[in-house]
Design goal:
The chain is mostly helical. The protein folds into two domains: 182 residues, Cytochrome c-like domain (Cytochrome Bc1 Complex, Chain D, domain 2), CATH 1.10.760.10; 148 residues, Cytochrome Bc1 Complex, Chain D, domain 2. It is 30% helix and 3% strand. It is built from twelve helices and four strands. A two-stranded antiparallel ribbon has the order 1-2. A two-stranded antiparallel sheet has the order 3-4. Helix 1 runs antiparallel to helix 4.
Length: 355
């Protein structure tokens, strides 16, 4: 039987207030209606009660996301490391900060982040999108500002004073309110209309023979065995933290261990979504792989065994990987490219609103 359902519209609570703020009247905000594609779960349980989705909040967050006013020298915005055309990721291996500094991790894509409940960044050091939005501003190798400095700039800006009043009914703009607005915009970055989705949900589209063979490999325990970490039909990630056999030791980056202190978490990093994976190179937490071919080669014959390797990879680790043939590799890559969501990449609602 065909599994077709129309889009589910998630209506988030309406907050009292006034569109044109007045000292004597309450302010009114307009509830933002998230469009949730078939196959993705509702997001309401993941939205903080103190930051409900509003049209005003999303618009403000979008403006802030693209505005270099948040950086120390007014030259760098969030969008400089999270580009829409590359799935809101960075095409560079390591992002460059305002002072020419580089970190040691690849900037993660921010696709479908509204459902993440296991921690943000590669190591999971922040627990909410609001907390995550605070950190790049003050990171000395990223935007290298201080929040008091940023608050002075924002409060001196008449446009922002009005927009924050309309969205949050505040007279003073502080860091927490900035983070709330950016998090609202990031929750709208929903991708779920790829060729794969249309085929999987029996809406339209067909997969080629090669793509279908890749699908079987993806879903098979004795094939490519991808699905244990990248479950199909929804987020295409478990969002958990795993060691995927990249290294024999973890002295270069201890990963989730830096957050938990648990020895079992050494070398474990958050599993990213495979949505738009064709566009989000380079790959892995340190951007070591430039192509999907290199990624597939790693899982096929490049796994490094260690005691805390992901359990689903353990059965293959002593053999170096799942041992795909050249044809199987090409079929798997063909299937992975069906996750590309052209509507998401071209959505004008996610683009730069600033003149």
């Amino acid at each position: 039987m065909a599994r077709f359902f129309p889009f589910v519209f998630l209506v988030v609570a309406l907050v009292s207030g006034c569109n044109q703020p007045d000292d004597n009247d309450p302010y009114i905000t307009t509830a933002y209606v998230l469009q949730i594609p078939q196959g993705l779960p509702p997001m309401d349980a993941f939205i903080p009660l103190n930051n409900p989705m509003t049209v005003e909040g999303v618009a403000l967050g979008r403006k802030l996301f693209y505005d270099p006013i948040l950086s120390g020298d007014n030259t760098q915005a969030c969008a400089d490391c999270h580009k829409q055309e590359t799935g809101f990721g960075d095409p560079r291996r390591f992002s460059e900060g305002i002072d020419g500094s580089f970190g040691n991790r690849q900037a993660m894509t921010i696709i479908n982040m509204g459902w993440n409940q296991f921690g943000f960044f590669w190591d999971g050091r922040e627990t909410t999108l609001e907390d995550q939005a605070l950190k790049p501003v003050t990171n000395p190798i990223e935007m290298n500002a201080t929040w008091p400095e940023v608050e002075v700039k924002l409060n001196a800006n008449a446009d922002y004073k009005l927009l924050f009043k309309q969205a949050y009914d505040v007279d003073y703009i502080d860091s927490l309110t900035v983070a709330k607005a950016i998090a609202q915009f990031e929750r709208t970055l929903i991708s779920g209309n790829s060729r794969f989705d249309k085929w999987y949900n029996q809406q339209s589209s067909q997969l080629s023979e090669s793509e279908l063979r890749g699908f079987v490999l993806f879903q098979s325990n004795d094939g490519a065995d991808c699905f244990h970490c990248h479950n199909l039909g929804g987020l295409i990630t478990t969002n958990r933290f795993e060691n995927n056999g990249l290294d024999l030791d973890f002295t270069a980056d201890l990963g989730h261990f830096l957050v938990t202190g648990d020895l079992a978490d050494k070398g474990r990093f958050r599993i990213p979504t495979l949505r738009n994976i064709e566009l989000t190179a380079p790959y892995m937490h340190d951007g070591r792989f430039q192509t999907l071919e290199q990624v597939v080669d790693h899982y096929s014959e490049g796994l490094q065994w260690s005691e805390n390797i992901n359990a689903s990879s353990l059965q293959f680790a002593h053999d170096g990987g799942v041992q795909l043939t050249p044809d199987e590799k090409q079929d798997l890559i063909a299937f992975l490219k069906t996750f590309t969501d052209q509507e998401f990449i071209a959505n004008p609602s996610f683009s730069n609103p600033n003149p």
